[in-house]
Amino acid sequence: MRMKSMLAASGLHTICTSGRCPNITECYSRGTATFLLMGDRCTRRCGFCDVLTGVPAPLDPEEPERVANAVVRLGLSYVVLTSVTRDDLPDGGAAHFADTVRTIKEKVPRARVEVLTPDFRGSADALATVLASSPDVFGHNIETCARLYPTVRPEGSYERALDVLLWLSRSAGGPRVKSGLMIGLGETDGEVWDTLVDLAKAGCRIVTIGQYLRPSLDHRPVARFMPPDEFSKIAARAGSLGFEKIVAGPLVRSSYLADQAFESISTGETDARE
Question: Domain 2-266 is classified in which CATH homologous superfamily?
């Protein structure tokens, strides 16, 4: 309740609430949240996502300061930032992302910042803008296999998502590259493996694998519920692909316990089995 009250008073959005994350109680109880930048209206409509679609409001130039102030009040040392997709903006909101990262690091110099961005339509300039703000982890979720993109992410592109990750991984001195995918959208086990192979080839170092849960009857039905032990088997097998960290489980989401995943890598605990 303290978290909900503080966020409401600050006029801030979180993907925890907007995306109906199943871990919201746990994370809010830990005093953590994933901030959702640039409003709560997305310009795309993905078949799995509960974030509202519509005409977004103009960017709030004070949002980076408000987010940074919330980081200070919460005493966060690890911050995760994501956003709605803003195809209406020339740079997709990249400069706003960068301003928020820099403002947080100015107020809390020791804070680690992880960004989870849209694909910016594949714009290298937009990616470079965010990269210049020096995030510690740069994430872009692949979400599903190539075959399902036309129905699950009709305004996205599997190849473009991989290109984004590859561009980031080839950036000299850049942050760790992260991505995530969901089980239960209609993919086969073979397609899950192929996607993980593609992520490894693109230079992804951290990957999350979770169970898709249907937000409402208006969203894509769940094709299968994978038993918890199967997630462990996928993680164990994918360890051979060279990932530094794999976090897999039914309720795993891309920012779930992100601070612990980063810390385990920083301390050399690179076992991929979760």
Answer: Aldolase class I (3.20.20.70)
